[in-house]
């Protein structure tokens, strides 16, 4: 191809290569390789699951057709036997005759069409159509190119952007990657929201990875994805989702965040609740298959279905959260409940409140947040399939070590326990030395409850034990490891003033270590290089104040290429912070 490559640098990731200029015209972040790798792994599993579901549907239809065939055969035999017809001949040729009758029947019994009968009975199972993918915010197009080149069985990939420089770069990269991407990937200069609204239920996969919040794209995205399709969504506005600006989070996502140790998992659950809310407006609902908090963002993978009756279960999947301001104990208040009577189900408001006015452990008040998604955020069968796929083709994932570690940790999480405890936080409240995680896990297991780690925080522990059991275990620990006297009005003093009802057993339990821990598999890896995190928005001029984001060497190199001069106002602000 005729192109001057002198002004571009070639960046290779996976099997795709892109041309990038040094002037920050088009956004690219190297650290998002984790995001792209895990998306490719989920997409491969989605295609496999689609094939399995398609074969199951064909098998079910084939059984239906067989039943109809047998029914029609028996009716024909009963009608013709009294007239002295040759029954044996009808029986021997029954299969062929019944197929002819069914395929030409105008009524199409049991909803089985002529094409389905021919495909099911005559020609055998047919392959499902390749999934069509929409990347709503493509920038350089790297993600779309990797999908097209690395995911087997994928269909057309449509890459959108409303920035002219990004679309030009994307089209340039499509040509640069050869005939495969030219045939599969197409790029359009348009507003993603308008495009998705005008293409309802057209895409089997919709990928949202915006710079910042995805909230403005959710309404159109849940309409654009097909029934049973996959919606992949990233949110990088973690300061908002984790409680730094609660009022902004409520305006964007419809939920109020709380600043607990579990704030990153709460961010995941707020995003899921927001997607569910948008889907419900169109008689649709979501089923999460994987939800991940990595680096500086959250990423969720959900399947979208249409069902007015199943949509009624949404209040059962959402809860408000009460968090104590003194001891950080938290309790969940479900929004709805059901009553089953005979074969009918009644949907009613949830019972409440689940907590008194003051905390029963330390006597302080509660903050209330939510609503959040309190149902499972992963499908463990999907997680196992994704992890097996990643391990089987580790050479094809540039970030294999990181994503396999995250998926391993997720596979060991308790799926039905929302949020988590922080052992260090519990000890900070009581001003005591911390037991090891193994000892604390053993005490919870010996008390008859379940406990696991969490992929969000290496110090986090998910347990289905109520908070009074947790505090009883800590009271027993403090009895064996006394603390200094504290003022009587402190939350820790109030908690320790009560005698434990449960006598904790700290003997080492067999299940106190997870399988990954027992095998010493790395689960939380350090960043591979410095300044591994968010990058500057495309189009902004790089100055010396961006050293914390990009690194000193990168900024100085870019400034020297541009003549070593910053804008005067920027340079004064950076060099002389006391100037007026």
Automatic annotation (TrEMBL):
GO molecular function: metal ion binding; tRNA (guanine(26)-N2)-dimethyltransferase activity; tRNA binding
A Gene Ontology biological process term: tRNA N2-guanine methylation
One protein family per Pfam: TRM
EC number: 2.1.1.216
Segments for region (Disordered): 63-92, 558-580
Swiss-Prot/TrEMBL catalytic activity: guanosine(26) in tRNA + 2 S-adenosyl-L-methionine = N(2)-dimethylguanosine(26) in tRNA + 2 S-adenosyl-L-homocysteine + 2 H(+)
GO CC field: nucleus
Functional summary from the UniProt entry: Dimethylates a single guanine residue at position 26 of most tRNAs using S-adenosyl-L-methionine as donor of the methyl groups.
Name of the featured protein: tRNA (guanine(26)-N(2))-dimethyltransferase
Species whose genome carries this gene: Parasponia andersonii (Sponia andersonii)
Origin organism lineage: Eukaryota, Viridiplantae, Streptophyta, Embryophyta, Tracheophyta
């Amino acid at each position: 191809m005729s192109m001057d490559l002198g002004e571009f640098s070639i960046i290779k990731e996976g099997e795709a290569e892109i041309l990038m200029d040094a002037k920050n015209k088009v956004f690219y972040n190297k650290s998002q390789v984790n995001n792209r790798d895990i998306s490719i792994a989920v997409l491969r599993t989605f295609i496999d699951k689609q094939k399995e579901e398609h074969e199951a549907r064909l098998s079910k239809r084939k059984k239906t057709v067989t039943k109809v065939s047998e029914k029609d055969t028996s009716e024909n035999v009963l009608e013709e036997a009294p007239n002295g017809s040759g029954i044996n001949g009808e029986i021997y040729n029954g299969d062929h005759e019944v197929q002819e009758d069914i395929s030409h029947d105008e009524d199409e019994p049991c909803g089985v069409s002529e094409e389905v009968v021919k495909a099911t009975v005559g020609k055998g199972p047919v392959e499902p159509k390749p999934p069509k993918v929409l990347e709503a915010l493509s920038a350089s197009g790297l993600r779309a190119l990797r999908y097209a080149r690395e995911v087997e069985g994928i269909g057309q990939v449509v890459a959108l952007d409303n920035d002219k420089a990004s679309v030009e770069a994307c089209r340039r990269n499509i040509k640069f990657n050869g005939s495969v991407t030219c045939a599969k990937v197409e790029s359009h200069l348009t507003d993603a929201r308008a495009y998705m609204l005008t293409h309802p239920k057209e895409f089997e996969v919709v990928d949202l990875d915006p710079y910042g919040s995805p909230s403005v794209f959710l309404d159109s995205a849940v309409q654009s994805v097909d029934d049973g399709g996959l919606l992949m969504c990233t949110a990088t506005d973690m300061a908002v989702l984790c409680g730094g600006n609660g009022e902004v989070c409520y305006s964007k996502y419809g939920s109020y965040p709380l600043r607990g140790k579990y704030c990153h998992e709460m961010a995941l659950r707020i995003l899921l609740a927001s997607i569910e809310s948008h889907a419900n407006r169109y008689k649709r609902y979501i089923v999460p298959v994987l939800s991940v908090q990595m680096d500086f963002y959250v990423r969720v993978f959900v399947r979208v279905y249409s069902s007015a009756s199943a949509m009624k279960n949404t209040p059962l999947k959402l809860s408000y959260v009460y968090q104590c301001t003194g001891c950080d104990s938290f309790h969940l208040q479900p929004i709805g409940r059901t009553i089953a009577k005979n074969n009918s189900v009644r949907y009613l408001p949830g019972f409440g409140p689940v907590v008194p006015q003051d905390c029963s452990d330390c006597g302080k008040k509660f903050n209330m947040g939510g609503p959040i998604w309190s149902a499972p955020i992963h499908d463990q069968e999907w997680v196992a399939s994704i992890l097996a796929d990643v391990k089987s083709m580790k050479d094809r994932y540039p970030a294999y070590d990181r994503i396999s570690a995250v998926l391993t940790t997720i596979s060991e999480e308790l799926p039905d326990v929302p949020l988590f405890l922080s052992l260090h936080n519990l000890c900070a409240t009581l001003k005591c030395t911390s037991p090891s995680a193994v000892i604390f896990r053993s005490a919870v297991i010996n008390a008859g409850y379940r406990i696991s780690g969490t992929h969000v925080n290496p110090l986090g522990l998910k347990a289905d034990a109520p908070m009074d059991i947790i505090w009883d275990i800590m009271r027993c620990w403090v009895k064996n490891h006394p603390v200094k006297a504290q003022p009587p009005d402190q939350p820790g003093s109030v908690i320790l003033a009560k005698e434990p009802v449960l006598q904790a057993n700290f003997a080492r339990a067999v299940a106190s270590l997870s399988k990954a821990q027992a095998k010493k598999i790395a689960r939380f890896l350090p960043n591979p290089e410095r300044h591994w995190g968010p990058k500057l928005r495309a189009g902004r001029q790089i100055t010396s104040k961006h050293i914390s984001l990009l690194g000193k060497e990168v900024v100085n190199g870019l400034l020297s290429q541009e003549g070593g001069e910053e804008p005067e106002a920027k340079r004064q602000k950076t060099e002389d912070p006391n100037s007026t």
